[in-house]
């Protein structure tokens, strides 16, 4: 690697076979592995870097030698650290978009017992959930709280006004359509919560009624298609804040967000779709016109008849883990003339899932 | 109110003394209180409205009579419902921005016993937390978990990798600067978590060391000033996604977001500021130049020396509730030559706080 200092005091690094990268002096000053700046144990920064003069300059730099700054700070510039630093960090990991033709043999899947025995198996499963947005756990006990044996490998479940683990089965006087045998259109869960639940664990106890297949849509794939084929519709959904609301005697939950949310870099980071609880404000009528057209265009991509819809049947003892920021899920209707359908579900925060996955990732 | 139907089949409502409002046919179709469309108990929508034709028209409308649509749907158009519908919904409630001169007599505050006795007192306190971003609970038991008596009035606390209620006091070999007697610069808590903790409950057990005052800054106020005085800096902070990271032996937490986050309507909805855990990616150097300049400008507004900083001293038996999406908090340094400083803290999700506040709001 060749080092030069630019006119502005920035560090230019030229590595053979790749474009030169210019590093900002403050970025270097903040990130170099110096024990006086970054706590060696937790990586926490020990000085208020907003107080670093913004006209800071690199004054001298030698590979595996000393790098010096105009404020008098100097530290080691390790070549292995610098090699990693000039690699661009990927924005979205290794996500794989899929559609309704995804082969069940390619579903990320693992046995609960194997994950308990070997954390590396759990790590690979969580990687699969990251790339595909879902995964199937097999060999989950058929107890009411059997799903907690898997959740416990990751972290505490999210508690909501409905408690921890909740039934998904047809009951009389259901407070939610989930608790009827009705088909469920593709949706993301509870966008009216703040925060929106991160991951859904759906644990199958019985499933031999007539109907009741699971349906999944890769919302990031649908959003990418909309962005390509109908950029105006995409833009309308990204820039319209929608209110979602749930209100009964004991809970009054409300949150806001676009159907397709992008981060500041323009990457899609969250899908919200919950027709049942979408209560858009009375926006100016021209904005609503664009919104409703765009929503209809997105709906075509995620509707049960869309080629993006994956349909399959959960078996007793299986648990479906779904990324609720990426997937739309639903089910076909069922009748209870014969058999029964009993699922249990709970939520995990993104926190614990991401932390476990990163800790188990091969170095 | 005068009703007319426009060329596009939209409903124009003219009320005396205010501008006419045009209502979109789909908005009306989705929101009118018809038991076949909206579940009377939970308000959940019972039909997939993305399938409503986007060229839907209102064909006839009579106040307190029938409104009819081009798809054959017809329902009652109640005048009281329509009156509420044409009022614009406020974007940000009744927030009051404040600075370092805020009179302690005006702090939202309430006694724990009074809130237990009378939900209306709790409701007014939560309203105060919504308008000011913080509030002080008095008369909290001096037990280690005394804060849970207040939290329990709202909902279950958030569990993190550090458990539920955690100590804030100086200890040897602290894993976090919080656990040292060092001063703490203004920051928001744990932007590396996903979701970021919504509300912080900081319960004071003892506080008679030399120093250790609490500091608060209204981040929404600081953001509004930056937006007015330095719009380029504001824009740079809103449009730069920052990585926050915490990594030790048992947790590897990471999340991303701008220092100032706006919703699709341009309202500021969240402040992230955590110098200790901010690990911005190696963005293009020109973008980093703008970012560091902007961060320094924002820092000037929230720094301990800024007139925006409110400083006061928590007393034993008091609990400070802080909106972690709005406030920056910190403390002055302290010495343990005499006395001690022992706080306990935990988090509440925004969910439960908002739900309780809305349920207790006067109708």
Automatic annotation (TrEMBL), chains A, B:
GO molecular function terms listed in the Swiss-Prot or TrEMBL record: 2-oxoglutarate-dependent dioxygenase activity; metal ion binding
Q: Which GO terms describe its biological process?
A: carnitine biosynthetic process
The answer on whether this UniProt entry bears the keyword Chaperone reads no
Q: Which Gene3D superfamilies does the record match to this protein?
A: Clavaminate synthase-like
Provide the transmembrane region boundaries: none
Q: Give a single Pfam family match.
A: TauD
State its cofactor. Answer: Fe(2+)
Sorted alphabetically, the keyword list is:
Dioxygenase, Iron, Metal-binding, Oxidoreductase
Family in the record: Belongs to the gamma-BBH/TMLD family.
- Identification of the protein by name: Gamma-butyrobetaine,2-oxoglutarate dioxygenase
Q: Which organism is it from?
A: Novosphingobium nitrogenifigens DSM 19370
């Amino acid at each position: 690697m060749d080092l030069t200092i630019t006119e502005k005091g920035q560090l230019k690094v030229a590595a053979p076979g790749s474009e030169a990268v210019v590093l900002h002096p403050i970025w270097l000053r903040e990130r170099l592995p110096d024990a006086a700046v970054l706590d060696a144990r937790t990586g926490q920064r020990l000085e208020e870097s907003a107080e670093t003069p913004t006209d800071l300059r690199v004054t001298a730099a030698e590979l595996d030698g000393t790098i010096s700054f105009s404020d008098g700070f100097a530290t080691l510039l390790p070549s292995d650290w610098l090699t990693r630093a000039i690699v661009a960090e990927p924005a979205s990991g290794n996500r794989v978009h899929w559609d309704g033709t995804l082969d069940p043999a390619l579903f990320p899947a693992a046995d609960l017992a194997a994950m308990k025995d070997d954390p590396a198996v759990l790590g690979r499963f969580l990687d699969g959930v990251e790339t595909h947005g879902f995964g199937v756990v097999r060999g989950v006990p058929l107890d009411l709280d059997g799903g907690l044996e898997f959740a416990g490998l990751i972290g505490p479940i999210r508690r909501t006004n409905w408690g921890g683990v909740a039934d998904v089965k047809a009951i009389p006087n259901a407070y939610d359509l989930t608790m009827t045998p009705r088909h469920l259109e593709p949706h993301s869960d509870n966008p009216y919560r703040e925060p929106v639940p991160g991951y859904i664990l759906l644990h199958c106890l019985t499933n031999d009624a007539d109907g009741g297949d699971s349906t999944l849509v890769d919302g990031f794939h649908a959003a990418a298609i909309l962005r390509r084929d109908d950029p105006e519709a995409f833009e309308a959904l990204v820039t319209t804040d929608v209110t979602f609301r749930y209100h009964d005697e004991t809970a009054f939950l409300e949150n806001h967000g676009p159907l397709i949310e992008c981060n500041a870099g323009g990457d899609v980071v969250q899908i919200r779709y919950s027709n049942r609880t979408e209560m858009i404000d009375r926006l100016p009528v021209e904005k609503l016109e664009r919104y409703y057209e765009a929503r209809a265009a997105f709906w075509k991509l995620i509707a049960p008849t869309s080629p993006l819809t994956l349909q399959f049947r959960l078996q007793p003892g299986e648990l479906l883990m779904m990324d609720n920021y990426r997937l739309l899920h639903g089910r076909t209707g069922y009748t209870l003339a014969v058999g029964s359908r009993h699922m249990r579900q709970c939520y995990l925060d993104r926190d614990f899932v991401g932390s476990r996955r990163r800790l188990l990732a091969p170095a």
